[in-house]
């Protein structure tokens, strides 16, 4: 199942379901010697190709059917969700790309629809709601434009609460962002410039500065040039042992080696909201990408909370439910709001 990867300490998997079987694939530590870069057999191309979920088992296949039994649709089994939510304070966590907005070719044009914005706005009127994204906090805010939300940008390394909200952060002034990787800012900017320079000759490559982390996109790079792009990234990173590489959907993500991820951000936000060890709270996390697995895992390990993977195809995941795509995420949010209104009205009638 598992093959030697392109990057030092990264595994490459022969089937998409095996992506998630080891955490090793997500944690790609730079700094390995030239010999660690396994160019032979083009294993690295497989790794980059595997980050696209189009090669996985599709609905209707046996593999998908058995997967859906273990990760049922959160819409089709909505009652299971509301049964778990009865009498609990719900907190909603949302990923951005692939969850609130569809995956598109140009990362700068991954707009949220006005209907989705409205659904998120309504959700935030009834439940504390946060967006946890790999993008910079400012960029995700520019897309979503809802001041009433919590935003965690740079994979949770830049967290800020709503400016005008009745929600109170227990950790003090919610308007001061929490930035556990602030010391890495100069290094990230330096690496951003180096990557811009080293990848400019590769048509379609795009380097995105997400403030405390960077993305190198290869969605629009001819597959024949992926090797060249990977080599440039590897070579830059080999000079920065305090940075590591992870992979998302046709993107190489570079970030500081600190013990912080979307799962830690979720815990931080729950604590800030005063729900640290509260058995009366039910966090719901919805996301589509590998980095969201850190948050799903936190919920699974706590034994409280609901993880929902956005995917049309079977993938190994720590989430317990699934939704197919952003339109289904929107329907789910609207049903949560409808359910909340209904239960509040019923309570008032008592
Ligand atoms: O945590 P997320 O909010 O899901 O951010 C993860 C990455 O999302 C963006 O890239 C992805 O979406 C793009 C637009 O649809 C797509 O073109 C790209 O191929 C995807 O990887 C964002 O641009 C990255 O910086 C984030 O790391």
TrEMBL record:
> Top enzyme class of this protein?
hydrolase
What domain of life does the native source organism fall in?
Eukaryota
Q: In which pathway does it act?
A: Glycan biosynthesis; trehalose biosynthesis
Q: Which UniProt keywords apply?
A: Hydrolase, Stress response
Sum up the protein's function in the record's words. Answer: Removes the phosphate from trehalose 6-phosphate to produce free trehalose. Trehalose accumulation in plant may improve abiotic stress tolerance.
Kindly give the PANTHER family that the UniProt entry links to this protein: TREHALOSE 6-PHOSPHATE PHOSPHATASE, TREHALOSE-PHOSPHATE PHOSPHATASE C-RELATED
What's the protein name? Trehalose 6-phosphate phosphatase
